[in-house]
Amino acid sequence: MITLNEKETSIQLSEKEETQIIIQYWIRILKIKLGWIHEFDKLVVNYVMIFLLFVLYLFIVIINNHYLTQATTVFMLDTFRSSSKLLKTFSGHTDCVYSIDCFTLDCDQFICSGSDDKTVRVWDVENNKQIQSFNGHSSSVSCVKFSPYHCRNYRRNVICSASHDKTIRFWDIKDNQQWKICKEHTKGVCGIEFSQFNRGRYLCSASDDKTIRLWDIETYKSLHVFNGHEYAVWCIAFSSLQSYNNKNKNNSIGVIGGNGYTICSGSSDRTIRVWDIETTKQLIVFKGHRDAVVSVKYGSNELGINGGTNTILSGSQDNNVCLWDIRSKKQTQVFKGHRNGINIVEYSSFVMDNNDIGDSSNIICSGSSDNTIRFWDIRSNKELHVIKENNGIHCLTFLQLKKEKKGKCKDDRDCDISLCYCLSNGTIHTWG
């Protein structure tokens, strides 16, 4: 006697067998009508390869377009020095301007500035007028930076300022008020810089108290104190990429993550020091300047700098500009010509045809208390151009101004490069 379960099993087996028979039948029919069906696997592989090659082609086209676009952001120094002139003057500060930063809001361009008159000011570039003034510091303002973190994460336009009153303050441009204040340094704060990674979440600060502090802007708390300099720390910079290959990964304490990111600092002890953010260890000490190092900048791959992020540019009160190689841990260039202390150094977007090497060279520039801004060929070590003023140059930066007053810049081709710099008499100039 067959049970119900045995009947169900018998029926299920029959259905399975029937399905297999049907499949086998259609396979035979297809083999007869389409004799190449046994090559089906190869056919699939061929189609996949064609698809992958098409994707690779699109990728190459996109990359080429990217670099073509990047190339349009490079400007010839010959054009600049032959046709440039003073474009705008911003007046309002009553004492020396130590720091400026440029930023764009809704396609409109602005400058923020910090001065010995204890104020932080915001300027509308196109309309050539001051739109804000913040008066909370009790001593000179040494450095100002527009905060990319607040803009990207909170859609708020915030300026960060450092002062010799020992504080770092955050100002909301729209609400015209102080937003936050950080008080951890025991002496004046000389310089600040936002990280170029993690959406600008981290801030480093340099101080007269000989220390460098790393801050989390999300919590406004100090994460770590870097000790090592023997005298006041004047300047600080974040690496944009993982420029140093840290082999000692076992020492990682995980301050903010991102093994390989570094900061560099310049001090009155005449040294430039490179620090690993992840391990908080000092990696390199560069010695060569004969006076205080007051400005340091990392190189950039985007500008096509020879050595890219493995180079550091420095300016000192010994009147010299120097270039350093992180990999070899050596000084590679010294640029001599200034007759007084250097206050600021900067990589530029300019290039120049160099007949000596049969290629184009990148240009760096420096501002000094000798009242001049000088442009240098980074490869030939030659001085290429000088802008002369009646007062000392304390800070400078490059910005791209719209060619026409009305309308938006669709891309960098619709803009001209301009130089923005500050004088010891309190005025700000744009030159282009």
From TrEMBL:
SUPFAM superfamilies to which the protein is assigned, alphabetical: WD40 repeat-like
Keyword field: Membrane, Repeat, Transmembrane, Transmembrane helix, WD repeat
Top-rank taxon, per record: Eukaryota
Residue stretches of each WD repeat: 90-133, 134-181, 182-225, 259-285, 286-334, 360-386
Positions of transmembrane segments: 43-63
InterPro entries attached to this UniProt entry: WD40/YVTN_repeat-like_dom_sf (IPR015943), WD40_PAC1 (IPR020472), WD40_repeat_CS (IPR019775), WD40_repeat_dom_sf (IPR036322), WD40_rpt (IPR001680)
UniProt protein name: G-protein beta WD-40 repeats containing protein
Taxonomic source organism: Reticulomyxa filosa
